[in-house]
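Technical annex, item 7. During the second reporting period the consortium partners agreed on a shared format for inverse folding records so that results from different sites could be compared directly. Each record opens with the tokenized structure and is followed by the designed sequence. A conforming record, contributed by the partner at site C, is shown below for reference.
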């Protein structure tokens, strides 16, 4: 399932229509393969958790 989604999203991200849409609307693009994206999410989750704890929103 991961491979199917990965291939479909990669195809979309590489399409001229998507690139034009992103550029026209001022959005940046970053692509990460599944393993790297999982690591990114893990690190981001930890960082946001630390920020929320430091701000007193969680314990």
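Designed sequence (site C submission):
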């Amino acid at each position: 399932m991961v491979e199917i989604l990965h291939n479909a999203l990669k195809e979309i991200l590489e399409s001229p229509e998507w690139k034009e849409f992103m550029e026209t609307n001022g959005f940046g693009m970053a692509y990460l393969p599944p393993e790297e994206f999982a690591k990114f999410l893990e690190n981001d989750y930890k960082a946001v958790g630390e920020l929320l704890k430091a701000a007193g929103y969680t314990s």
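Residues 24 and 39 are 30 Å apart (CA to CA). The radius of gyration is 16 Å. All partners now use this format for quarterly exchanges.
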